[in-house]
Amino acid sequence: MIERFRFGTPIETCAVVEQLPVTEGMLPFFEISSKNGITEFVYKLADKDIVYGLGEQVRGINKRGWCYVSSNSDNPHHQEDTRSLYGSHNFMIVSGRELFGVFFDYAGKVTFDVGYTNRDILCIMPEDLNLDVYVITGESEKDIVKQFRKLIGRSYIAPKWAFGYGQSRWGYKDAKDIRQVAEEYRKRNIPLDSIYMDIDYMERYKDFTIDEEAFPEFEDFCAEMKAQGIHLVPIIDAGVKIEEGYDVYEEGVKNDYFCKDAKGKDFVGAVWPGRVHFPDFLKSETRNWFGQKYKFLLDKGIDGFWNDMNEPAIFYTEERLASVMERISELSKENLDVNSYFEFTGLVAGIGNNVGDYETFFHDMEGKKVPHSKVHNLYGYNMTKAAGEAFEMLSPDKRILMFSRSSYIGAHRYGGIWQGDNKSWWSHLLMNLQMMPSLNMAGFLYTGADVGGFGSDVTEDLMLRWLQLAVFTPLMRNHSCRGTREQELYRFDNCDDCKKMIEIRYGLVPYLYSEYMKAVLSDEMMFRPLSFDFPTDADARGVEDQLLLGNELMIAPVYTPNATGRYVYLPEEMMCVRMRSLDDYETNTLAAGHHFVKAELNELVFFIRNGKAIPVGKTAMNTKKLDAATLMLLGFEGAEYDLYEDDGYTKKYDRSARVREIRR
Ligand code: GLC
């Protein structure tokens, strides 16, 4: 059962698709009080209660013991003490003494103190009291998620080619670099479905332009890549460069499509191109206009995009820069001591992504001027919505790949997300795993992290271990930052082992795609904590580094350096598969309980659930070449599998789909 409680006059977020009547009366589970003008929703946690959810956030599957803040932030250096990441997903489930889900549908900043100040208190603090709170009760965590997902509407469906392997790097300057990447993969027969185009494909970082010198005859180049089975996926940034003669800028100014400053002038911030205006994506006219701009690239043969810098990231605003410069010039005349030195460094560090700037620009929501701070978490969502709505018109039949960095619940209907700028750290490999179920709870099924890590220098063992997780995530993209160690797989001595992981991925695509589609179409989670399926198993409830995948698998990747295996908990008897390649693996059945499972660096280890089997096919150079006739069942004797199949490219999935029973 879902009940909706209304406080004050909320700003419409469009997170939900079902308009429930407002329940009059007391909000269950929570006590509401007010401290220093801040309203607190307080729930008393029992000793063993687990709190799941919050989507894209740091720390574990159980969120208890930290304070999280929903305030979309560009933070490429995030660690375990970070409070805000790129997306805000205010849905959580409390499980233990009582079981319920709760969604704080609020466009501004919300603080979730999940047993941080006091281990036994869950305290939720929106910035003001204008919001809808949805309370969901049900017989299990899975049931609550399913009800919630129905409330927020069906998740975006990615094209099947987006389940292939993708290579990306901020640093490919021109067509020659990209051809080279394709060539190196082809030479080694490593499967590849996509190459990503970062900001350097644009002319002076201007959205919807192509640097003609770096990419002459772009349309032909797209076709050339397509002929090799490779989709080019360009980036689109939120900020629009201020430049006379640039059509997107000029149209935006002329038609009032940009966010305004306090004086009503187009607000100026700065990102990659220097000074930009930010499209006011909360205005439907702006969304229509910006969305139609993707046509420029669609017409050239592009069929996938990633939306970036849409928290929005702001390097500086003119006002802040000026005031910081002034103070720095004063300080520079001083003998910097303990106080003035830190004031100085603090000023410099505070120029970019300063939340204070969110007060200085405004949106036009149905004629009402709303400060950005009140709707900050909706910005990236509405950029993705702009694209998604336009794709419906521009490409009514064909699925277009879209994933975004910033998001709010609701954006899951228009695109996927990647987990933002991470690092080549073992801890971020674990974080990648731990975020999968909470993102699924919030409706984001097409997701994954930058494989190998975006910032810092990757090592070849980290890359290989990361691939062993990414083999299972819908988005499998190797992406890295310029200036870091190059991490295309052919850069490493263990390239052959990496290649085998990619081949295994292609062998698993039919299964992964099938489970993804089943999860989308039935509002379920593709990745789940063990406790969701084994709620009464105390050991399963404590597992933080294994996940159930679909209905058949359990994954338990290695996420520490120099390991030759790891401890795994089996809530039931399972088949352990140890795979070095698609034709070189062994299986053995393990009893329920705790095991140390060996996993050498080149071995992918995963588990098939009791009595189940999965289809595994032969690899191919890209997803289009996968041959469904090669599927064999791997798993328990006598098990069958219902394979969901559709053409993978059109939106007619409900008409072209069929379920095929795979037998041994
Ligand atoms: C942002 C993105 C990253 C991209 C970079 C340059 O940091 O998150 O993926 O490579 O910008 O465009």
Brief description of this entry?
This protein is an alpha+beta fold and 664 residues long.
Itemize the secondary structure elements and their pairings.
Layout: E1 2-7, E2 31-35, E3 38-44, E4 50-53, E5 66-70, E6 87-88, E7 91-95, E8 99-105, E9 110-114, E10 121-126, E11 131-136, H1 141-152, E12 165-167, H2 175-187, E13 194-197, H3 218-227, E14 231-237, E15 240-241, H4 247-254, E16 260-261, E17 269-271, E18 274-277, H5 284-293, H6 295-298, E19 304-308, E20 316-317, H7 318-331, H8 338-349, E21 361-365, E22 368-371, H9 372-375, H10 379-394, E23 401-404, E24 407-408, E25 416-418, H11 426-441, E26 447-448, E27 450-451, H12 460-470, E28 476-478, H13 495-521, E29 527-528, H14 530-533, H15 538-541, E30 547-549, E31 553-555, E32 565-570, E33 574-581, E34 584-590, E35 593-598, E36 604-609, E37 613-616, E38 632-635, E39 641-645, H16 653-656, E40 658-662
Parallel strand pairs: 6-24, 12-13, 12-28, 13-14, 14-19, 19-23, 23-25, 25-26, 27-28
Antiparallel strand pairs: 1-11, 2-3, 3-10, 4-7, 5-9, 7-8, 8-11, 9-10, 15-18, 16-21, 17-18, 17-20, 21-22, 29-30, 30-31, 31-36, 32-35, 33-34, 33-36, 37-38, 39-40
Strand order of the largest sheet: 26-25-23-19-14-13-12-28-27
Spatial shape: globular
How many helical elements? Answer: 16
| Name given to the CATH architecture of the domain at 512-663 | Sandwich
Low-pLDDT windows of residues: none
Class of the domain at 512-663 in CATH? Mainly Beta
- Please state the average pLDDT score: 97
The largest sheet is: 9 strands, parallel
Structural class: alpha+beta
Q: Kindly, what is the distance between the CA atoms of the first and last residues, rounded to a whole number of angstroms?
A: 41 Å
- Nearest-angstrom radius of gyration? 25 Å
- What is the percent of helical residues? 25-40%
Cofactors, ions and other ligands in the entry: alpha-D-glucopyranose
Instruction: Report the portion of residues in β strands.
Output: 25-35%
